[in-house]
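Internal ticket - ligand job 462, heme C:
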Amino acid sequence: MNDLSMRKFYGWFTALGLLVSLLVVVGFYKDTSRPWKTYQRQYIEQEIRRASTPQEKLLAETTPVEIHQILLPELHRVDRCTTCHLAVDDPSYAGYPEPLGYHPLHDEHPFEKFGCTICHRGQGRATTVADAHGDVPHWDEPMLPLKYIQASCGQCHQAADDPAAPELARGEQLFEDRGCRGCHKLHGVGGNIGPDLDNVGARRSPEWLRKHFLSPASVTPGSAMPPQKFSETNLEAITMFMLSQTGEQVPGYYASMKVIPSSSEGQRLFEQKGCIACHSIGGHGGKIGPALDNVGVRRTPEWMMRHFRDPQAVSPGSVMPQFGFTESEARALTDFLLHLRDQRVVLSLPALMTPVERGREVFHKYGCAGCHGPAGKGGVPNPNAKTAEQVPGLIHVADGYTKKELKARILDGQKEIAAMDPKRPPPPLYMPSWRGTLNDAQVDDLVAYLFSLKPKGEDLGF
Ligand code: HEC
Ligand code: HEC
Ligand code: HEC
Ligand code: HEC
Ligand code: HEC
Ligand code: HEC
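stdout (structure tokens):
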């Protein structure tokens, strides 16, 4: 075909081009604007039906069909979810099918201040179901499945203290108990063998995390992370805790309830402020103030709150300092003192613990169990290591080391692990050096703990 015969098609090309563009625009328009209008009309019809006076009816009939949005500059969000979820704050819509249902639990978190995506994720600005819920390619923040919604609470509340997020608290507990910190840093504390977990919840999906826990090497070939044995409930809880680590820093007001007043927060304050210097619990501690074991019987919560605010105002001449607690700190301390008769609370105060008990805490906190197994029982694979291709257990160290040698061993660590077969890749797990991370007293406590692990009765053979 020559140039001339081509030219007579140009008109057609232009027309076709225009038609295609038009179709794209129409398709786009249909896609983006229809569904939310339908939901708004359904809502308006519902309101008209419910109207009991002519005024209400008129009001409903003249409700404009328009995009609704919540502007949240501090959270860097614009949430349009209420364009479809129109009745979230109207209790009379409880039990209605979505998107017209009433939202439970919003008294503490008013929508005009919190919006929706800070808890649910998803795409705040979008106005189609798929886009808003984030079920689209190239959008890296899909909505959290509802069963993991507690993951969001951890952004603004201390997981362990949130009474409304028990599964998240369980996940955090598992993280500490299983020794994940032996290999991973979270908020600056932990080892270097695995990646930092500070924003893993923004990088990984629930499905990925679940699969990875059960078999790390099937997701990351050659992974040095040992497969984790979790029951289904625990697997969900640890996945939830990982999802809560988004690395997003919430500002000012939003972080003001980082600590929900609770007994465990009260205990932290009690330790931090040195109350034990003047007061005793279970017979341990100072004698300047009264023993606190039964204070919950002697005093009402209201009395305690007033006393914390200003001890001299309640007990004239008292030498107890005015600590300047915030309202929620005073609430937390009061809660703690009311629960004092719970023995577990008493035993975990460091000032009242034995070196062995403190050593066990250090072992936990720094994740020794991640490599040496729970309570140092071993069993963690270390492919190609001379010691049975495993990280050694620690229950027999009392036989091979003096206390001084053991202390040096922990402080020095060991980078080069003897390989069984020099042709295979070297063992991935090594003993980190703890010098600079643990102080002298902590290592002494660790040594006391490790010596205590030796099974009883083993020396009786001779
Ligand atoms: C275009 C209308 C529309 C928009 C915009 C929209 N939703 Fe929805 N939403 C729906 C519909 C319809 C349903 C019920 C059917 C479904 O789950 O897809 C629903 C269901 C839900 C559910 C329940 C899911 C479940 O598993 O039961 C949640 C949570 C939710 N939406 C949150 C949000 C959030 C957060 C936003 C804003 C980022 C949002 N929605 C924006 C229409 C919308
Ligand atoms: C403070 C966190 C938080 C905020 C903010 C929040 N939600 Fe929720 N949402 C939740 C929790 C938690 C649930 C699960 C409640 C339950 O069933 O126990 C939930 C449930 C839902 C459901 C399912 C309701 C059901 O009963 O199945 C929808 C839909 C929903 N939210 C939409 C929204 C929309 C739209 C917004 C913004 C206007 C919003 N949420 C804001 C925490 C939040
Ligand atoms: C964006 C930050 C943020 C998120 C996410 C969040 N909260 Fe809150 N929460 C707050 C703030 C701020 C308050 C205090 C509200 C006020 O009193 O003005 C609060 C209050 C509370 C309270 C009441 C505390 C008290 O004793 O007064 C509870 C319980 C609570 N949140 C539980 C949850 C749960 C459960 C979730 C997850 C579903 C959650 N929060 C998600 C910030 C957040
Ligand atoms: C013996 C060391 C070790 C222990 C203990 C360990 N991990 Fe890992 N972990 C690793 C290594 C190495 C990687 C990187 C390779 C991979 O992706 O599997 C990793 C990867 C991960 C990842 C993926 C991180 C990302 O950014 O892709 C998560 C999540 C994770 N670990 C969570 C945990 C949790 C939770 C625990 C405790 C239950 C734990 N790990 C215990 C060594 C360990
Ligand atoms: C990242 C994995 C890892 C972590 C975390 C770790 N260790 Fe080790 N540890 C090892 C390996 C591997 C060896 C074996 C070294 C060798 O082969 O000589 C070892 C050896 C030891 C030994 C000598 C055991 C023996 O039988 O000679 C002691 C004691 C020890 N670790 C204590 C600790 C303590 C205490 C902690 C926590 C503060 C800790 N380890 C954390 C990997 C780890
Ligand atoms: C310098 C010593 C001192 C310190 C530190 C101190 N207290 Fe006191 N406390 C006292 C004295 C003296 C009294 C008795 C007089 C009074 O009621 O104020 C007292 C009374 C109390 C009472 C009332 C007991 C009762 O049976 O009437 C409570 C509760 C209490 N303190 C809690 C605390 C807590 C919690 C802390 C730490 C945040 C703390 N105290 C720190 C000296 C102290």
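Auto-summary: Residues 146-251 form a domain with the Cytochrome Bc1 Complex; Chain D, domain 2 fold (CATH 1.10.760.10). The two ends are 105 Å apart (CA to CA).
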